[in-house]
């Protein structure tokens, strides 16, 4: 898990450690320029408390934190013309600015996500999908919306894809899994308690597992056979909405669908058209006119 995510989670932090974490998150690059005594003074804490916090998130001390956090911020940094994924508009923004910023945000998110995709990894994913008797999707809240769209597309070309919306049902789904299934697990943080419970069950069932998660180390990635990274510029909590993360996940799933579709382009297209005609409730004469 990256440093920023750990600071946001505040897992087992004392009140003083929470104050330090929130100050670091708010002040970004400026923090890494500060000495430990300066940071202690600014957060009304002590150097010893800062050291304890850095060790609590798996670092060796404050100097290690400055080096690693600086590198992390560089990787996630925005260029001058990029939209802030967490706050793409302000309370002063006009409707026109909101519309324009969201278009730019979408474009930039897709470009960032594309830069993280690897053709060889996609080839492995498609091979696993073709081999699997059933593909099971796992996720929580917003990620399930993207998963549902993927399931709908895959079902229309004849691939058996299963997903459940309730946490308890997903536990049952994992418990019923097998080596001839394929699990696609979606979690932006990769640290959600329910998600980790499911992947542990899936590993006990020897089910191949693809993780779609944020860039960097997290619990989910440690259980995955294949990791696909999302755009990771979005914060967990301090944001208006998950604009970037959901768009990134939807794009990844759409790319996976298209790559799978292409493996049997004509067959999948015939199956989809046949499925759509069979499920379309419009009068037959309208369908005939559409196809003429």
TrEMBL record:
SUPFAM superfamilies, alphabetized: Homeodomain-like, SIS domain
Keywords: DNA-binding, Transcription, Transcription regulation
GO molecular-function term, one example from the UniProt record: DNA-binding transcription factor activity
CDD domains in the cross-refs: SIS_RpiR
An annotated GO BP: carbohydrate derivative metabolic process
Pfam family, one: SIS
UniProt keyword annotation of Nucleotidyltransferase present: no
Domain called HTH rpiR-type: residue spans: 1-76
Gene3D superfamilies: Glucose-6-phosphate isomerase like protein, domain 1, Winged helix-like DNA-binding domain superfamily/Winged helix DNA-binding domain
Top-level taxon of origin: Bacteria
Family matches, as InterPro entries: Homeodomain-like_sf, HTH_RpiR, RpiR-like, RpiR-like_SIS, SIS_dom, SIS_dom_sf, WH-like_DNA-bd_sf
Domain called SIS: residue spans: 125-263
Protein name per the record: Transcriptional regulator, RpiR family
UniProt organism field: Sharpea azabuensis
């Amino acid at each position: 898990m990256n440093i920023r995510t750990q600071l946001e989670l505040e897992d087992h932090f004392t009140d003083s450690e929470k104050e330090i974490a929130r100050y670091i998150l708010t002040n970004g690059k400026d923090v890494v320029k500060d000495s430990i005594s300066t940071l202690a003074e600014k957060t009304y804490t002590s150097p010893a408390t800062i050291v304890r916090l850095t060790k609590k998130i798996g670092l060796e001390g404050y100097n290690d934190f400055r080096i690693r956090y600086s590198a992390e911020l560089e990787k996630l940094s925005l260029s001058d013309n990029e939209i802030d994924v967490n706050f793409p508009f302000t309370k002063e923004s006009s409707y026109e600015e909101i519309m324009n910023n969201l278009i730019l945000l979408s474009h930039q998110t897709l470009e960032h996500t594309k830069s993280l995709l690897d053709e060889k990894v996609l080839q492995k994913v498609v091979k696993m999908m073709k081999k699997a008797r059933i593909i099971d999707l796992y996720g929580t809240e917003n990620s399930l919306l993207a998963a549902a769209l993927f399931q709908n597309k895959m079902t229309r070309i004849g691939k058996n894809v299963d997903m459940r919306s309730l946490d308890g049902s997903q536990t049952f789904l994992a418990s019923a899994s097998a080596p001839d299934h394929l699990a696609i697990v979606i979690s932006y943080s990769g640290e959600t308690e329910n998600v980790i419970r499911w992947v542990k069950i899936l590993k006990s069932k020897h089910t191949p597992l693809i993780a779609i998660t944020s860039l960097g180390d997290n619990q989910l990635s440690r259980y995955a056979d294949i990791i696909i990274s999302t755009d990771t510029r979005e914060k967990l909590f301090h944001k208006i909405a998950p604009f970037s993360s959901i768009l990134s996940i939807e794009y990844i799933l759409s790319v996976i669908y298209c790559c799978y579709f292409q493996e049997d382009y004509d067959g999948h297209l015939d199956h989809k058209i046949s499925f759509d005609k069979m499920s379309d409730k419009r009068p037959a004469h309208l369908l005939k006119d559409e196809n003429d």
